[in-house]
Amino acid sequence: MLKVIGVRFRQAGKIYYFDPAEFEIRRGENVIVETVRGIEYGKVVMGTRFVREDEVVLPLKKVIRISTEEDTRQMEDNRKDALFALGICHEKISLHGLEMKLIDAEYTFDRNKVIFYFTADGRVDFRELVRDLAAVFRTRIELRQIGVRDEAKMLGGIGPCGRILCCSSFLGDFEPVSIKMAKDQNLSLNPAKISGLCGRLMCCLKYENDHYEGTKQQPIPDIGEQVCTPNGEGQVVVLNLLERRVQVQLTSTGVTVEHSLDELTPMHS
Q: What is the C-alpha separation between 55 and 85, in angstroms, rounded?
């Protein structure tokens, strides 16, 4: 077993494991660590715990130090300078007439690199742009193309439900979402109703999918099927798989009654 802490570098970003070394580190503290991008400033979102070796990517990097006030000030300066860099990059993109949408910019903590995030419909030749930016900022430049879901995660917003986007508030990783999930949950297949701000299927279609899949493994009637209820024979008109209840229109009276799945008996011809 390995002793680790979990660190995030962005709001709702992926959690990375680090070795806390001799430090007593609590959740909510900020730390300075070494990553593949260089020295970075991150927030501890998972306190000290023990995990199996197959749960982490080895070798495990050690925490360099718990952040100081000076580190926090540098991080704030980096964020302000990144906003300035964003404006300069916008100007350069317009100057070169490139078909790309700039989303965000950030400095690595040690200021060895400026990373610009953008979206585009296809490949973009930005070699001249990189040379111009390197001449302005006199540091390494990286332009990273991202997808529309990552764009929504970075920019944030309010979803159709009226709440802050899941991806920008708590989802660390995107999971595959399919139209079959919407069908299984008897949702409208109108793209406008089941798509998020990114234009892709909403991530929340995944949340209850396991429950629906588990329920469908059990015998359940289809809409329009004839069944027997404690009130008499009728036709299934509404299925509520989440609560395992159905509404049945009685043949004798035309009245619609609601029952649990356990109260129904299929009719055999």
A: 37
Long-range contacts of residues 241-247, Cβ cutoff 8 Å, at least 24 apart: 241/184, 241/185, 241/186, 241/211, 241/212, 241/215, 241/216, 242/208, 242/211, 242/212, 242/215, 244/215, 246/221
Instruction: Give yes or no for a contact between 192 and 225, defined as CB atoms under 8 angstroms apart.
Output: no
Length of the chain: 269
pTM value? 0.80
Q: What are phi and psi of 260, to 5 degrees?
A: -80, 160
In the chain, count H helices and then E strands: 7, 13
CA-CA distance, 62 to 202, in Å (whole number)?
A: 37
221 pLDDT exceeds 90? no
C-alpha to C-alpha distance for 86 and 152, rounded to whole angstroms: 17
Hey, CA dihedral for 148, 149, 150, 154, is it positive or negative?
positive
Residue 214 confidence (pLDDT): 80
One-letter amino acid identity for 181? M
Cα 81 to chain centroid, rounded: 27
Task: Report residue 49 CA to chain centroid gap.
Answer: 24
Percentage of the chain exceeding pLDDT 70: 99
- Count CB atoms within 10 A of the CB of residue 35: 15
DSSP string, 92-114: HHHHHT---EEEEEEE-TTSSEE
Kindly list the distances between the CA atom of residue 55 and the CA atoms of 1, 4, 101, 201, in Å, as whole numbers in the listed order.
10, 11, 36, 29
Task: Please name the residue ranges forming H helices in 186-231.
Answer: 191-194, 209-216
The span from the CA of 75 to the CA of 180, in Å, is 44
The pLDDT assigned to 268 comes to 61
Map tokens 């979803």 to a residue.
Answer: 159
